[in-house]
Amino acid sequence: MSENHPRLAASPTVRTVDGTTVVTLRGELDLLAVVSLRSRLDALTRDPHPDLVLDLRPATFIDCSGLGVLCRTRNRVRARCGRLRLITDGRVLRIIRAAGLDGVFELPPGCPSRSAVR
Q1: Angle between the N-to-C axes of helices 64-79 and 90-98, in degrees from 0 to 180, rounded to the nearest 10
Q2: Which fold has domain 11-117?
Q3: DSSP letter at 78?
Q4: In 18-75, which ranges are E strands?
Q5: What is the per-residue pLDDT across 84-97, written as a single tens digit (0 to 9) for each?
Q6: What is the pTM of this model?
C-alpha cells in the first residue's frame, strides 16, 4: 500500500442470518490486523457445529498472515464439525489460489469459479 494512504485496519461486522453467522471483513487483513481478527474469529468458532460465512468482498488487502487466519478458522470449524464458507471476488480468489489453498475453502454458488481466475 502506498505510504500516502492511511492504513485501513480490518473491521469485521458480524450478523446472524437464518442461524448462520456472517462476518464481513473490511480493510486490510494483514499482520497488524490479524491479532484482533483471530480473537474475534476464535470466539465465533468456540462452540460445537459453528456455521460461518466470511464475506471478503470488502477486504482491500490480504497477506500471508491474513490467509493464515482464514486457515486457522477453517481448521477450528472443521474440528468442531461445523461449516465455513467464503464469499469473495476474483481478486481475493486469485490470492488464495496463488498461495496453493485452491480447493481448501468452500465457495457458495455465485462466487467466481476457479477456472475464471486462472
Answers
A1: 90
A2: Transcription Regulator spoIIAA (3.30.750)
A3: H
A4: 20-29, 51-55, 59-62
A5: 999 998 788 888 88
A6: 0.83
